[in-house]
Design goal:
The complex is a heterodimer. By secondary structure, chain A is mostly helical. Chain A has helices spanning 6-33, 53-62, 64-95, 99-113, 116-129, 136-146, 148-160, 165-172, 177-188, 190-206, 209-215, 223-233, 238-258, 260-269. In chain A, 48% of the residues are buried. The chains are: A mainly alpha, B mainly alpha.
């Protein structure tokens, strides 16, 4: 059972074929992104005379530099906020058995069911009235609130399985609640913090609907909105578009490849609760 | 050392720790959602603060609107199709890489990779691949299946399935990773004992693996069906809801009704319908799967 047999070899061949099929779109993406526009041969034929011109063109025309900075900024700030406020809230919600605690927890969990499509239109009006349309800070505010239910859910589940002896010891030693949270509880939450960090960062980075609403028509863009705007504008020049798509994918894939273990574990493990 | 139990201090977690999260949640989710539900019963146009309550008019309009009914149907069809196909493929992939093959680690990383990429970006990529002179048709021509070539996204009967294909391509690896975590939590001894007893592979899977995989199945079904119901980005980028209304979902109609037609009241009424579907599906799935999970363990 633990030997590499003929059947294992057959399975290996099948799985490599499946992997190749999954990778095929990415091959075409790269193949067309490095192809000069004058080359109109079949999209699956390897490009004979690769060029870098599409990348410089797309970078300049689509304003990807500014969008990249905005995406990094929005993702970093909103994820830090949501992790901090959710971990802090989860602490009493997991520890207290009072009625207010249970009620508050259920209220926040209600947010897991409410789809953002319902809140986004009324919130659009509020954001507009506050004069925040077209500002990336409206996005930070939005994600910081939107991701609270899911993140709190993760933290509460983890905290409930965590013994309270360390906090009690800190309390006996005279630590106040805030100090014992900051120096005793939060460090013990590290595994679930990594999971929550990965899941929130991917969700915020990839979101399209919200920035489409709040940033449309402004010169502030995140990467997904900049790419969508660029596709609309250069609808026939796919070599240029593919270069833009590739540029927008590279930072995500680079982080993924560098941190593959924690990222895959984050997706698989955190959801086991 | 006197009466240690009596003087022992329990650490307290004060209620005000919940305040920052609660404020953000209330401002971003709770209040706007409540307003959305209220606006669904008004003639809200997104601008005018003077609203008139119109009762159920938006909902009766919805019931009489063929486009809306069709969008609700598409939403459910897409959600079910994605759930079945993505999890079927995800499970097969998980079984494939949970073996002794030498490329298993490489394949795990490769197959999961699409799941972290921005959905709108992968959808634009596929829009080109599926175009009449795109790579899919070129590939079919190259392997002698030239007669299969067609305008995949331009055909109203096919376009919806292309949306499903793109989502499944992107997230099958996500299902795989969750199934894989479930498979790896099954103790090897149980499996080997059954193999020694001469239990066949199919029987082993059905009687041993499947019940122990119940938590992974629960999570996967939840994620894919709710994700499918809320689907927006992929439809927006691939077809924009077209051709005609052939691929419009509740989410694309919400967007169009509000931002191209200015019918905000009607649009939030659709969002309320979406909310009800999500709530019913979540509750139903939770009950059924919870019962099964308990029965299996």
């Amino acid at each position: 059972m633990n030997r590499y047999t003929r059947r294992t070899f057959a399975l290996e061949a099948v799985m490599i074929a499946v992997g190749a099929a999954f990778a095929f779109p990415v091959y075409v993406l790269v193949n067309l992104a490095i192809r000069p526009t004058s080359d109109t041969s079949s999209p699956i034929r390897p490009t004979g005379d690769p060029t870098f011109a599409n990348f410089t063109g797309a970078w300049r025309e689509a304003g990807l530099g500014g969008a990249l900075i905005n995406s990094v900024l929005v993702t970093a700030v909103s994820v830090v906020i949501v992790l901090a406020v959710s971990a802090l809230a989860a602490y009493p919600l997991a520890r207290s058995i009072a009625r207010w605690s249970r009620g508050t927890f259920l209220l926040i969990m209600l947010g897991l069911i409410l789809p953002f499509q319902l809140s986004s239109l009324p919130l659009y009006q509020t954001v507009r009235d506050l004069g925040l349309l077209g500002s990336v800070w409206s996005l930070v505010l939005f994600y910081a609130g939107l991701q609270v239910p899911f993140t709190t859910f993760l933290y509460v589940g983890f905290l409930r399985a965590l013994p309270r002896d360390f906090e009690d010891a800190a309390s006996i030693d005279g630590a106040g609640p805030l100090a014992s949270f900051r120096y005793v509880v939060f460090p013990m939450l590290k595994p679930i913090t990594v999971t929550a960090l990965v899941l929130n960062a991917v969700a915020v980075w990839n979101d399209f609907f919200t920035p489409l609403l709040y940033l449309s028509g402004s010169n502030q863009q995140t990467l997904p909105v900049a790419v969508a705007g660029f596709v609309g504008q250069y609808v026939s020049d796919w070599n240029l578009i593919f270069a833009a798509l590739l540029i927008s994918i590279v930072p995500v894939l680079a982080v993924y490849l560098a941190l593959q273990r924690s990222i895959i574990n984050g997706f698989a493990g955190g959801l086991k609760g | 050392m006197v009466a240690l139990g009596a003087t022992r201090r329990r650490a307290t977690a004060p209620w005000w720790f919940t305040l920052p999260a609660l404020l953000l949640f209330t401002f971003v989710v709770l209040v706007p959602s409540a307003r959305g539900i209220y606006y669904a019963f008004t003639d809200w146009d997104g601008l005018d603060p003077d609203l008139a309550v119109v009762g159920l008019r938006n909902f009766t309009d919805l019931a009489g609107d063929a486009d809306a009914r069709q969008a609700i149907w598409h939403t459910l069809l897409i959600a079910v199709a994605i759930t079945v196909i993505q999890n079927g493929i995800g499970l097969l992939l998980a079984l494939g890489v949970n073996s002794l093959i030498k490329t298993r680690n490489f394949l795990r990383v490769l197959l999961f990779a699409p799941a972290v990429v921005t959905p709108i970006v992968t959808a634009y990529l596929w829009r080109n691949l599926l175009s009449p002179d795109g790579a899919v048709n070129s590939l079919l021509g190259a392997v002698g299946l030239g007669s299969w070539r067609q305008d995949w996204l331009g055909d109203p009967d096919l376009a919806l399935w292309m949306v499903v294909l793109v989502v499944v391509w992107q997230f099958a690896g996500y299902s795989m990773v969750i199934f894989l975590a479930g498979l790896q939590s099954i103790p090897k001894e149980i499996y080997e004992a059954a193999a020694i007893d001469g239990t066949g592979a199919v029987r082993r899977f059905w009687s041993i693996v499947r019940p122990l995989l119940a938590p992974a199945i629960t999570i996967n079904l939840m994620l894919s069906i709710i994700g499918g119901i809320k689907l927006f980005d992929q439809v927006y980028a691939l077809t924009g809801g077209g051709p005609g209304h052939a691929t419009d979902t509740i989410s694309t109609l919400i967007y169009k009704d509000a931002f191209t037609l200015g019918e905000f009241g009607y649009s939030v009424a659709l969002a309320v319908v979406l909310t009800i579907i999500v709530a019913v599906v979540s509750a139903g799935q939770y009950t059924v799967l919870n019962r099964n999970e308990r029965a299996a363990s």
